[in-house]
Amino acid sequence: MRRVAVIGVGVTKFGKHDRTSGELFAEAAVDALADAELPPGAVQALYYGNVVGGETEHQLHTGPQAASILGIPTVPTTRFETACASSHAAFRHAVMEIAAGVSDVVLVGGGERVLNVPTAESTEYFAYASDASWEQPLGLTFPGVFALVARAHMAKYGTTEEQMAAVAVKNHKHGTMNPKAQFQKEITLETVMKSPYVADPLKLYDCCPFTDGGAAIVLASEDVARPRRRAVWVLGTAAASDSMLLGDKKDLSRVMATERAAKAAYQQAGKSPSDVNVVELHDCFTIAEIVATEGLGLFEPGAGGIAAERGDTSLGGKVPVNPSGGLKSKGHPIGATGAAQIAEIVTQLRGEAGPRQVDGARTGLTHTLGGNTATVLVSLFGRE
Amino acid sequence: MRRVAVIGVGVTKFGKHDRTSGELFAEAAVDALADAELPPGAVQALYYGNVVGGETEHQLHTGPQAASILGIPTVPTTRFETACASSHAAFRHAVMEIAAGVSDVVLVGGGERVLNVPTAESTEYFAYASDASWEQPLGLTFPGVFALVARAHMAKYGTTEEQMAAVAVKNHKHGTMNPKAQFQKEITLETVMKSPYVADPLKLYDCCPFTDGGAAIVLASEDVARPRRRAVWVLGTAAASDSMLLGDKKDLSRVMATERAAKAAYQQAGKSPSDVNVVELHDCFTIAEIVATEGLGLFEPGAGGIAAERGDTSLGGKVPVNPSGGLKSKGHPIGATGAAQIAEIVTQLRGEAGPRQVDGARTGLTHTLGGNTATVLVSLFGRE
């Protein structure tokens, strides 16, 4: 297999936009191509992630639409949808296109628009990522799913609501250093603890927001990337699945797909958790970050909440998690999230993250979760 | 790049079903795995095509759902959506996974369910594959798109409504020989010509039906496929795109994405149009078959209608097109169509197509189109 590198990244401001998801992606893509110092005409394929475009924009077939908006309508393009992990899935398949020798320069990204519909509607559309026959009829939307995960983790390990709140406080603090973040405002532990319950034990400030946004990255083969000083190499990328039904999972305090994908990605990269200097992971809810830090092997099972409270995952801590602010504070435009996480890690490994820079970061990891913990992708990146 | 072969195929009966798209896919997948003489546990990845699941079934994240229904919930899986070409796109990306050396056995397929909602609703959902900002508001549904294509072809080449009708008559005749086809009934030219206009000049019998169904194929690396006598090799597979907006296309009598994808696929395979013995192509409307036979280089531009009328594309003709009955008679469960076309070509190249067998077929081609002619995939297959 040929080696693959990221040579350009771009992300829109996350938040409310009055543009289509395709237009948001195109803005990010133009920035990513400029960052890569390549014209759009150099792109040989477009890998595009979008989730609820059919529902919120009445738009399917979003791959060629994104390519057309970007002005490269003849480039082969595919839309990938694995719920919130869609553009991370697009990334992994794009790596295979280059690895297989089919292309040398591939544009990857995603866009999503959800703030054009009421919150109750987007909550329903997001729930389409769970099983329509068995779980949707029970009213199991995603705050409910992660409330069950939280209760299981609390029961098994004694994890506290204060520990979950510490994740929110930390990610909001990180978000103040990211000019692209949806929220750039510090919050206190008290603010989180006093916010209303959305799905007990998860409160409003345990939940990431609904977000419009786009993100893009330019991937290149070794020949193209080698002369570029700022290239960041893909060391490993793996996907794993788990049962679609929450009721089929044996232990809700763990995300088995995270553990499987992490194991495969570490193996490909020849790295272990202790090699990782900086992480962007899927904190759709604060408990999701705690469970992910354990599943990725950064902390022992049950130690994730304690680590967050102790500051181990803060900038300056043992292993900074979500320096971008994460989904919680940066925002979560679902189809764009995986690509945005990769953009942040690439920025960190280049040493270009400004006030939120993790000093001396050489190896970074991204983790994106889709649906009822049924899809997870994990990728590892490094400087030479 | 490692060579890739198809070692198993399965297709459900096409028509109306009271099961989910995931269940329909699973039925086809069980048949495909039995055909490949492999247990489900041998599958290393699932590539899944589905288009309007969000709309008709309130189901996104259909990859892991399909894997769960099939009993292999931990297999990495991705949903692909490129409108009606979705499972052909899934197939092409799966070929790259094997070519890159990531996996040796990959299950590819798709499922779709649309007959659980009224026709007016599915027509609207299908239109989501065209641009939501500019074209959907004009009421441009797909019969309208292909009526414009037909008018352009008639104006440029003198193609007649009778020539289009000949495609319908031929494909319905082929469909009588396919026990899986939605319609297994011959029709006359008069029936087509007297049927009501849907979008002038296209009449009811120029249009393919709405269909529920599933299709699956098992792909394998050379090492796995080599000992298998019935393996059919992937000689080439290419995707091409074109402008999303119909108004941006210079000549509606041609499908540029077909021409580009065909050129790339022939080049990969080291074949020319005259080498092709049997074709499954995207006859969503009769005019689409005529334009595709020209775009694939089987006939000169403008000669497709004449060729159809003359019987060149009938079983026993110069180059039989859609021996399965095509989308027109076999049916068009959109997310499953690309995989179903490949299943037919593999069956033909194995010499196992029974009464609809194309004698001595050695090289076959599949062609699948998505949206307003904005996505096309072309693949070539051969026996050793």
List the helices and strands and how they pair.
The structure is a homodimer of 384-residue chains.
Chain A: E1 4-11, H1 21-36, E2 45-49, H2 53-56, H3 62-70, E3 77-81, H4 86-99, E4 105-112, H5 119-127, H6 142-157, H7 161-175, H8 189-194, E5 197-199, E6 202-203, E7 213-221, H9 222-225, E8 232-241, H10 256-269, E9 278-280, H11 286-295, H12 304-310, H13 326-329, H14 334-349, E10 363-370, E11 375-382
Parallel strand pairs in A: 2-3, 2-4, 9-10
Antiparallel strand pairs in A: 1-7, 1-8, 4-7, 5-6, 8-11, 10-11
Helix pairs in contact in A: 1-3, 4-14, 7-11, 7-12
Name some characteristics of this structure.
nine-stranded mixed β-sheet; globular; Peroxisomal Thiolase, Chain A, domain 1; 14 helices; 384 residues; homodimer
Nutshell version of this structure?
The structure is a homodimer. By secondary structure, chain A is α/β, with parallel strands linked by helices.
